[in-house]
Amino acid sequence: MNIVLLGAPGAGKGTQAAKLVEEFKLPHISTGDMLRAAVKAGTPLGQKAKSYMDAGDLVPDDVIIGLVTERLQDADTENGFILDGFPRTSAQAVALDAELSKLERPLDAALLIDVDPEVIVRRLTSRRMCKDCGYIGTVADVTCPKCGGEMYQRDDDNEATVRNRLDVYEKSTSPLIDYYRGCDLLVSIDGDRDPQVVYADVKQALGL
Ligand code: AMP
């Protein structure tokens, strides 16, 4: 299954992707995770991306399109993938369509996890991640419940940056909802519920 996850930052895309990955063994292509890894490793890509990410702005389209196009050549994506955080602009969506039609692997669904922006601000400012395994928890998790690792707050999860990320989402990414509706690929799920309940709906909506 070839799936694109849509939704504002903090809607729960990463959490739902992790569940799908675990159950269906699909590769999880998270552009945010790829960029954070590049920043941590200090690669040229990471150095270029860091200032955009810290401000909550989008990394330029050509950079991110190149990154995803390259990743889609890997053999592990041949039997399906979950794209999380990409596409985020119309140019990215068009480039993805072009690449997937070249590879003869069209999308099966664009899954929108829908959550009210004020709920998102509360969620993101209290979100914490595990330094070791990437587990997504909350401020209540002193250590990682999965691996015991140290939990930290992402640099871009402070309130001012979160509000900018939501503005960027509204302007640049939310038009993709209509784009995928027009392609008859959009599936929308209410994400303001317990992650397990959301996941049950996700599977039903995807026919899994
Ligand atoms: P995320 O973890 O998906 O919230 O992404 C964190 C940050 O990485 C975003 O705020 C952007 O600065 C950058 N980023 C991730 N994916 C993309 C993308 N598809 N296009 C542009 N920038 C991106």
List how many beta strands DSSP finds.
8
- Tell me the strand order in the biggest sheet: 2-3-1-4-8
How would you sum up the major sheet?
A: 5 strands, parallel
Q: Outline, from the CA principal axes?
A: globular
Which helices and strands occur, and which strands form pairs?
Elements: E1 2-6, H1 13-24, E2 28-30, H2 31-41, H3 44-55, H4 61-71, E3 81-84, H5 90-103, E4 109-114, H6 117-125, E5 127-130, E6 136-138, E7 151-152, H7 159-173, H8 175-182, E8 186-190, H9 195-206
Parallel strand pairs: 1-3, 1-4, 2-3, 4-8
Antiparallel strand pairs: 5-6, 5-7
Helix pairs in contact: 1-9, 2-3, 4-5, 6-7
The site of adenosine monophosphate (AMP) has 17 residues, from helix 2 and helix 3.
Compose a concise summary of this entry.
This protein is α/β, with parallel strands linked by helices and 208 residues long.
Descriptive overview:
By secondary structure, this protein is of the alpha/beta class. It is built from 9 helices and 8 strands. The strands form 2 sheets. A 5-stranded parallel β-sheet has the order 2-3-1-4-8, with helices on both faces. The protein has a 3-stranded antiparallel β-sheet with strand order 6-5-7. Adenosine monophosphate binds next to helix 2 and helix 3.
Features:
about 210 residues; alpha/beta; three-stranded antiparallel sheet; 9 helices; 8 strands; about 50% helix; binds adenosine monophosphate
